[in-house]
């Protein structure tokens, strides 16, 4: 995984934070995409603190709605995302994180969370797990 430089200028970080239109819960959706292949990896949420940490460190941090806490991608599984570029949509209410993903992005052990599709009238997996989720999360 390449070294990623965080956004070093606090003024620039503040400008981006102020440009984001967080929803009524203080969240913004974030699509994570592999920077060099274009593969869509996952959708998650950030609050202001998660976005600020991501910009300051270069390590992608999300907000876990189920845990009501910051979620540093890979802190449990080792499947870290490093920020390469961050893009804000035209309305300011969604983010695209171009990342360098170490390993799999999905908790099911698949490379992408978008690994299910309608096939022969049924919703089925279209990609097999690359890693046993038990090995990533120890039974979580």
Automatic annotation (TrEMBL):
Please, which domain of life does this record's source organism belong to? Bacteria
> Which cofactors, if any, are listed as required?
Mg(2+); Zn(2+)
User: Which SUPFAM superfamilies does the protein's record reference?
Assistant: HisI-like (SSF141734)
Molecular functions (GO terms): magnesium ion binding; phosphoribosyl-AMP cyclohydrolase activity; phosphoribosyl-ATP diphosphatase activity; zinc ion binding
Q: In which residues is Zn(2+) bound? A: 90, 106, 113
Q: Which reaction does it catalyse?
A: 1-(5-phospho-beta-D-ribosyl)-5'-AMP + H2O = 1-(5-phospho-beta-D-ribosyl)-5-[(5-phospho-beta-D-ribosylamino)methylideneamino]imidazole-4-carboxamide; 1-(5-phospho-beta-D-ribosyl)-ATP + H2O = 1-(5-phospho-beta-D-ribosyl)-5'-AMP + diphosphate + H(+)
For Mg(2+), which residues are the binding ones? 89, 91, 93
User: What does this gene product do?
Assistant: Catalyzes the hydrolysis of the adenine ring of phosphoribosyl-AMP.
The UniProt family comment states: In the N-terminal section; belongs to the PRA-CH family. In the C-terminal section; belongs to the PRA-PH family.
Family annotation (PANTHER family): HISTIDINE BIOSYNTHESIS BIFUNCTIONAL PROTEIN (PTHR42945), HISTIDINE BIOSYNTHESIS BIFUNCTIONAL PROTEIN HIS7 (PTHR42945:SF1)
Q: What is this protein called?
A: Phosphoribosyl-AMP cyclohydrolase
Organism per entry: Caldovatus sediminis
């Amino acid at each position: 995984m390449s070294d990623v430089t965080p956004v070093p200028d606090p003024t620039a970080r503040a400008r981006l934070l102020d440009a984001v239109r967080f929803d009524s819960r203080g969240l913004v959706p974030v699509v994570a995409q592999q920077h060099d292949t274009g593969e869509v990896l996952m959708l998650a949420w950030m609050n202001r603190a998660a976005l600020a940490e991501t910009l300051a460190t270069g390590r992608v941090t999300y907000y876990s709605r189920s845990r009501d806490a910051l979620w540093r991608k890979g802190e449990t599984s080792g499947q870290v995302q490093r920020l390469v570029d961050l893009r804000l949509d035209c309305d300011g209410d969604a983010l695209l994180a171009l990342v360098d993903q170490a390993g799999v992005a999905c908790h099911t052990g698949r490379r992408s969370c978008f690994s299910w599709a309608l096939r022969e009238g049924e919703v089925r997996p279209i990609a097999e797990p690359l890693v046993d989720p038990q090995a990533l999360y120890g039974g979580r």
